[in-house]
Amino acid sequence: MILQTVFPDTYIQAALKHRGFKVGRSKVPKSAASTFGKRHFYKIVLSIGNVTVLYGEHLLKLSGAYLFVSNPYVPYSVEIISEVQTGYSCLFTEEFIQPARLVESLRKSVLFDRSMIPSYRLSDVQCERISDLFEKMITEETSGYENKDDIMRLYISMLLHETIKMRPNDERVLPVDASYRITRQFLESLESQFPVENLNRSINLHTPQDFANHLGIHVNSLNRAIKKATGKSTNILIANRITTEAKALLELTDWSISEIAYALGFEYPNYFSTFMKKNTGETPRFYRKS
């Protein structure tokens, strides 16, 4: 299988806004939980690796090859357990699929039924067949055919029909206790502040106490729940997400370092510099130059 680095969220959002569709190969290293709250796109992923997904009230342990389908309405988070996760991903908006009568023909699929478990274990034969569909989509994506979007809709339909043929294995669904529910709420609140797109609106939840107040629980309860669910501290998860956003803003905008600092909720630019030095080993200025 040919692999390439997954597109950063900023590029994906731009592609979806421009066209309503994006497909690509993926290679994702081991990482802490990343959350996907309210979105405006659907997602079909062929995942090969060891992954934990907190999907609504369900905790899914996916080991091996799986097809994962998500809609914009159910929040979820993903933690990569194996050293690397490979496969493919296809993202598309509701506007993109409307012309294809997809809504009528695939009402039984997990794409529209929020109560269904969204993951499907694949045999070697199924994995090969679905990988071939993704490869055809990638090839079509680079073609100059003016009606290629219609072909993409047919491929999406074929992928979803594969899910209708399969039934999820209920043994992979684990009960979610209070720690996971609190962690999911925390991750949703954390992610809701991003991406930062407006200099006039800075993030306002920066500390475990801020999030505890926002969720209406004691900060000790929040910290215990997150440590139990993720193995990491609340401070580390907050710092990791702010660092990711800071890197994106330094790389992809022409905002000054002071403007980025204020947008990320730092009272003074030197606080931002200290934060970046601690979490990346580089100052914002040096990181932008490099």
TrEMBL record:
Matches recorded under InterPro entries: Homeodomain-like_sf (IPR009057), HTH_AraC (IPR018060)
Keywords: DNA-binding, Transcription, Transcription regulation
Single GO MF annotation: DNA-binding transcription factor activity
Family annotation (PROSITE patterns): HTH_ARAC_FAMILY_2
Protein name as it appears in the record: HTH araC/xylS-type domain-containing protein
Domain HTH araC/xylS-type positions: 189-290
